[in-house]
Fold each of these.
Amino acid sequence: MKTLALLVALTPGLTSAQDFPQRFDSIFGTTVVEARPERVVSLGYVAHDDLLALGVIPVALRYWYGPYPGGVWPWAQAALGEARPEVLRGEISFERIALLEPDLILAVSSGVSAQEYRMLSRMAPTIASEPRFGDYNTPWDELALTVGRAVGQEPKAQAQIDAIRARFAVIRADHPEWGDMTAVAATYSGGAPAVFLPGDTRADVLNNLGFKTPDALAQHAGESFYMELSAEDLTPLDADVVLWIGGTATAETVASMPLRPSMRAPREGREVWADELMAGALGHATLLSLPWVLDHIVPEIEAAADGDPATPVPSALAAGLVR
């Protein structure tokens, strides 16, 4: 299954030509892309991953975070190859972008303002987020389809989306018991835990693997992408699998939570630790990062979901959550 996305993407007939012009409606107006672009500037914080998955090297990409100066994380390095797009950091520099002579600017989930959108649109057709999603809430598959349609690769984008969905389906079929279990993606910051709610990719990955979100959390879906919990009540974390998201949370602070001994997950070895790389892959949620997530997280969850503390969960062991 590891190579399914690549095999599907390369299957004849799935990457047929796409017609132009293409029309895009966004929170700032309507954009028409008249012809297949050749010089794409990617201002969305993760859209360059999808471009690379589709075989399109942007002339510039937006740096989000992480210890990778080129802005491309390890799961996308092979698709990048020897290319070195210009890396745009911090505030948008209209002068730098203009010098790149783009014929398309992808600004979905970029945080651009209406004024910035108008200025960018004077340089090249600029695509921002759709009104139904808002600026930062575009689902991973909708982003991939938008990117694919904008660069003339919508069939290829759809094929890779279908391949990822197929991988989820195969994993669910291989683990039918997960359909009767609950799972939570959580983090720890500021002295209290927080959970990611359905609608956020970190929670959605667990749901797509078959797990249910505990009812106490599922009822808040749609209110925000995450919810802070009380340090005095950890019962919402009483799930069959707890996926701790690294980043601002450290394994040491999680392990030292005063009420953690009252949780079932640490007692029964049901915790998985997402280190910086895994947390980054879950946060990107792209055509390239999601297959990488599935390659690496499924064995961890298998070890955690059995509820046997004698079965080591490698990530939890490495992070020091298991004493």
Note: The CA atoms of residues 267 and 309 lie 7 Å apart.
Amino acid sequence: MDRKGILLLIICCLFPCMTTKQPHILFIVADDLGWNDVGFRNPDMITPNINKLAHEGVIFNSSYVLPVCSPSRSAFMSGLYPFKTGFQHYVVGNSQNTCLPHDLTLLPQQMKKAGYSTHAIGKWHLGYCNWNCTPTYKGFDTFFGYYNGAEDYFQHTMGPFYDLRDNEKIAWDQKGKYSAQFFADRASDIIKQHDTQKPLFMYLPFQNVHAPIQVPPKYSDLYPHVVNYGRKHFSGMVTALDEAIGNITKSLQDRKMLEDTLILFTADNGGELVAYANNWPLRGGKHTLWEGGTRVTAFMRGYGIQNAGTHYNGMIHAVDWMPTLIGIAGGQQVPGIDGINQWDSIRMNQPSKRTEFIYNLDDFFIPSQGHAAIRDGDWKLILGYPGLYDGWYKPMNDTRDTPLYDFIYTPGDKPARLFNIKDDPLERNEISALHPDIVDRLIGKINVYRKSMVPANFPTPDPMAHTVAKRNGGAWSPGWC
């Protein structure tokens, strides 16, 4: 054998999973799922399918997102920090003339270029006032889901109007059906009809477990030991989500596609405490820059993973998922984004390529989320208002009452709060007075990031949204901006 042949043999032995084959990719997003709301962390939760996938893959212990959902979803799709796209402030309202900037290159567009069939099923929440803002105009071959941020799980209404689409058509025929079930059915139908010789990319941002707290009784009945009505039904919603994921993975298995599929599962933000989610033992929850609002349950399972059955402690941020999935697909990376391709680090358990990130920068005050924070190595600095909840909250299983949560608004960048997350992951020991030099250095870094911050695109509601909805039979519809 010549030298070239020997070299190829060595490479094949050292890297047996490296191949030109493009795997199928499922990107699953659970809405408002808390850190402590899965069975592999909390034995009270019935999530056998999620547990199995997580244990067969790599569980991420340091996977970060934004404090609320539209910013996180914008990061997933664009690979950019939301403060650079105008999406840093709260969430897109149902009557706001806003959507992701049209000059961005999004994840599904790059997946299509790489030869993938692209499908989105579930919640969009990145703007819909113009058709060009909607999923099938942003790179997805098909879309089955809703445009807004929350709705009735059975009636599919957000406020006074209906919100469910099958591509561009209003999906009136799903009224009365539970969303997790028919989202899973649609995903299974696509899998059954898919040409397995072509790679499949499916984005599955489920409605579960966002408020309102609604679930068929057969799921909540699985939690007779939970006294609190809201927590009992929330727990049932988690199990309904788990069943939907199990049905989808069974469809993959039936088509002999599962082992050729890479599954990414993540929450979009921390659990919503007043809607019965739980992030114990992390501090805070959704709407906050505390770890409970931004460090979320996430894992990868399947094709190409060489260290299955492990936990990965490396730092990963929401902006990293776009370049990582493009890297897995063998697609062309988008230049100039904030995300980092972490695929080699994840699949071979190497150190993360990320050493810092911005939790968020937002100078537009509303009590629903924090002001500014940065992570640099083990250090975390929060400036000013950290967000709506400030404490550590156990699950509400044993109480009939839903506690109220207080917040204290402090304008601007003061006080500065410093934590060493490696030594103090629960953020119980504020140590800024001990390290004024580190505080000054991190403030300097935040100020550099601020130079690239664009104003939040958060306009006042437009009454034309209601006018157009009425013209479309009472369904929220594009065409008013």
Note: The chain is about 25% helix and 15% strand.
Amino acid sequence: MSKKWTISIPASTANLGPGFDSIGIALDKYLDLDVEVATEWKINHLSDNLPVIQNPDEHLIVQAAQKTAQMHGLTLPACHLNVTSEIPLARGMGSSASAIVAGIEVANQVLDLQLTPHDKLKVATLIEGHPDNAAASIFGGFTISSCAENGEINVFHTANIGAAFVLFIPNFELKTEKARDALPNSYTRKIAAQASATANLLTAALLTQSFEQAGTYMEQDLFHEPYRLDLIPESREIILEAKKAGAFGTCISGAGPTLLSLVQKGTEENFISNLNGKFPNFELTQVGMNITGTIVSIYTEGSAAN
């Protein structure tokens, strides 16, 4: 019986300042795939925000799908994929994580692996190296995740955070590798303790929806932002101007170069209007928090079921 699948994966932001490599939030922008088993691989890119790749075997979605199949001792049949994306590449919004999650879900559906969300996160972490963005894309909402020395993945998630965000999406890229290379190899005990305490305070403020406090802690990171802000032109000016325009706080989204402001829900349009024209190299756009995570619809003989 012929089956088709539609898979929708949300974008994500990670860190929120001090929650380095652990905090993730799913965002209301999506990578969407239509999937059908075929005799040969074919990938149609139907939107911008997608890489130019001629060989399907070099496509991250295909690589993640094939890796997932191999981990389960199976061979993935070829598929036709129609792909659209609202997630800009190399902008700190989890584009690679969403592609990896998409590939894992392709294998899960086509091979009927019946993977749990936690199973999918384990595979995604093995492929990407850290779970924060993938956890948000899989579970939705607000997530905290970690990978222990033995490979065990721990994750907490909740949708009960009424936060609102505005993104400053630049017209230039910042490769994750360059952002990683800017970081020190070690931290003093004093800095590590203070940075960890600030991350704890941020988490507590978000979970209690104390957004003014959360905004303060977002701007007090010691793990990565002091080293990455200089890689993003105008970032320090944006943080100052965003505060004047009403933001609770502003931080780098993931590894950057997108910046993210936490604002009062309902004020997003006014916030953007107050900053209109000040940063022409950045597109300001409001974005909500996705609470569903990855969604799959299965189509069989003309009928659909979620």
Note: The chain has two domains: 3-159+290-305, 164-287.
